[in-house]
Design a protein that fits this description.
- This protein is mainly alpha-helical.
- It has helices spanning 8-35, 39-44, 57-63, 67-98, 105-114, 122-131, 138-142, 149-160, 164-172, 177-188, 190-205, 209-214, 223-240, 243-248, 251-286.
- The longest helix has 36 residues, at 251-286.
- It is globular, with a radius of gyration of 24 Å.
Length: 288
């Protein structure tokens, strides 16, 4: 059996993929290296990949702030409350609109897709939250985003690919719509559920804009807003303090440490959902 020879196209594809991998990996490695380096080493080698004298001083300065614990607790609470809500609303809406007999399906789909292009803006949303007396509470952030239209489209396309014969068989056995969804459809839709769950976890963990608008209580500020404040204060102190104080509070090192602290929880979750992620995105994107 002859071995397949590499063509010019194969070589170009390998080189292109290799360049893309470097574009992704090098900045990440550089961020990790800077977070463990000193200001002197960073100034000597801005494109740092392996610090010669690693230090945890940047992480100590970052984690010494008591607001970090408050931010972690609030962000975790937002994830625990928001992700189940997002999954329930997105999957149930996607299943309902995937049914051929759903009344007013075309109008509802058009109205939902319309919101991808146009929305009311932050001012009506703020006024609504104020009328509901939810401002300055964790619920204002949790309820500000219920259904992401892009995730809804992926889930609906996946549900449309499931044979209707399965639904009809369940109906003949006396199952209702909710029973069909939770006992028949969702067990077959593990890839899309894992995909939407991962997207929602990332969105909720990185929540900062709605919190910045709705929350003024420092006891319920999420992690992203806390890190933003710490980084801004670090920039101000490095510009106004003495050289010795600036060396102790290496602002770029604190920024990179904040990046690692923010992304590490998501990086720990991703491997558990990775096996479903690619299949869910591909099937949900191409089925109609």
């Amino acid at each position: 059996m002859k071995k397949k020879q590499l063509s010019l196209a194969d070589v170009l594809i390998v080189l292109a993929v290799g360049c893309l991998i470097l574009i992704i990996i090098v900045p990440l490695v550089n961020a990790v290296a800077i977070s463990f380096s000193t200001q002197r080493e960073y100034l000597n080698h801005p494109l740092l990949l392996f610090p010669t004298a690693p230090t945890l001083e940047n992480y100590r300065n970052l984690l010494a702030d008591q607001r970090i614990a408050t931010g972690f607790k609030t962000s975790l609470l937002i994830v625990c409350l928001g992700v189940p809500l997002n999954l329930f609303l997105t999957l149930s809406l996607a299943y309902g609109t995937s049914r051929p007999s759903f009344p007013g399906k075309k109008f509802i789909l058009a109205a939902i897709l319309f919101t991808m292009l146009f929305n009311g803006g932050i001012l009506p949303l703020y006024m609504q939250m104020r009328e509901l007396k939810l401002t300055n509470t964790i619920w204002s952030v949790v309820l500000a985003s219920g259904v992401n239209v892009f995730y809804f489209v992926i889930a609906r396309n996946f549900f449309c690919s499931i044979p209707q014969a399965l639904v009809e068989s369940a109906q003949l056995d006396g199952a209702g719509e909710w029973r069909i969804l939770f006992s028949v459809i969702l067990p077959l839709a593990k890839p899309i559920v894992a995909t939407v769950a991962l997207f929602c976890i990332v969105d909720r963990w990185n929540e900062w804009y709605n919190a910045l608008i709705f929350i003024r209580n420092n006891d319920i500020v999420p992690l992203q807003v806390v890190l933003r404040s710490i980084v801004m204060e670090s920039n101000i102190s490095s510009n106004t303090s003495s050289m010795e104080a600036a060396a102790r509070n290496f602002d770029m090192g604190i920024k990179m440490a904040a990046v690692i602290v923010t992304t590490l929880p998501i990086m720990c979750i991703f491997p558990f959902l990775q096996k479903h992620f690619t299949k869910g995105v591909m099937v949900g994107a191409i089925k109609s």
